[in-house]
Specification:
about 260 residues, alpha/beta, three-stranded antiparallel sheet, 11 helices
């Protein structure tokens, strides 16, 4: 079986060294396995999307020499052939399956109400088209998810403690990351999912959703969760922390240093 993985940047900010390190790590794994790499750009977040962020993805990949066999070659090809907006009907099909099987419910509560367990929307059985309602996943108590991770060994989580009533369809009608990413991985035939350790809870949730939808190809995938790249203060490098910069230029010395630590 051909080793297939993906890198999935989001055009919601400029890429930073943490992103590039993760991309290089995935690319090296694919190269070593003589496999195939997909460039999947996640653009469901319309509010933060900027054309400059999209163009910068292609600039960075070219500068770092990260090659891929499948995916858009430039911004025009992305918009016309590869945007997630073009796959909305596929995501909606999965959402309807989850709704019809009783695993989703409409909810108008705030994030704070959910965190404080003050929501009663599941008992109210709101209509799916309730105004301003998101669709949340009802996770049974003591739902345990476990898998073997090539980097971490056997991993086990109580899903309720990680993802309490997660949103699967947002109040604006768009699918949430969890269902879109899962659907895309299945659609593109990805069989090795490489992520940072900060996305362990996302993997656990997506494995649970995959079990509900009987998406065995995702469940049988290889998973590799790599260490995160930290800044000088020991915190994760991220867009939200303001670490992204247009000034990144090859040879990216900090990226190469961190990559060597990860590979070793």
């Amino acid at each position: 079986m051909t080793f297939r993985s993906r890198i999935a940047p989001t055009p919601s900010g400029f890429l930073h060294e943490g992103n590039i390190t993760a991309f290089l790590y995935t690319w090296l794994l694919v190269q070593k396995a003589n496999g195939e790499l997909l460039l999947r750009i996640d653009d469901l977040d319309n509010e933060r999307f900027r054309e400059a962020y999209l163009n910068y993805i292609f600039e960075v990949l070219q500068a770092t020499g990260i090659s891929y066999q499948t995916g858009p070659k430039d911004a025009h090809e992305f918009h016309t052939q590869w945007s997630q907006q073009l796959r909305l009907p596929m995501y909606e099909t999965y959402l309807q399956q989850l709704w019809q099987s009783g695993h989703l419910y409409a909810c108008t509560c705030s994030r704070q109400q959910i965190a404080k367990h003050q929501c009663s929307c599941f008992q109210k059985k709101l209509a799916p088209d309730t105004p301003h309602a998101a669709w949340r996943l009802q996770v049974p108590h003591d739902t345990h998810i476990q898998w073997h991770d090539d980097a971490l060994g056997n991993v086990s989580f109580c899903l309720n403690e990680l993802q309490h009533a997660p949103i699967i369809k947002r109040s604006n009608g768009l699918p949430a990351y969890h269902i879109a990413s899962l659907a895309d991985d299945v659609y593109f035939g990805i069989n090795c999912i490489v992520r940072g350790e900060d996305l362990l809870s996302s993997t656990a949730l997506q494995l649970y959703i995959a079990s509900l939808l009987q998406l065995d190809t995702f469940i049988q995938s290889r998973f590799i969760h790599h260490p995160l790249m930290m800044n000088k203060t020991g915190k994760k490098i991220s867009k939200s922390a303001g670490n992204a910069s247009l000034q990144l230029q090859p040879p990216f010395p900090d990226v190469q240093r961190c990559l060597k630590q990860i590979v070793q």
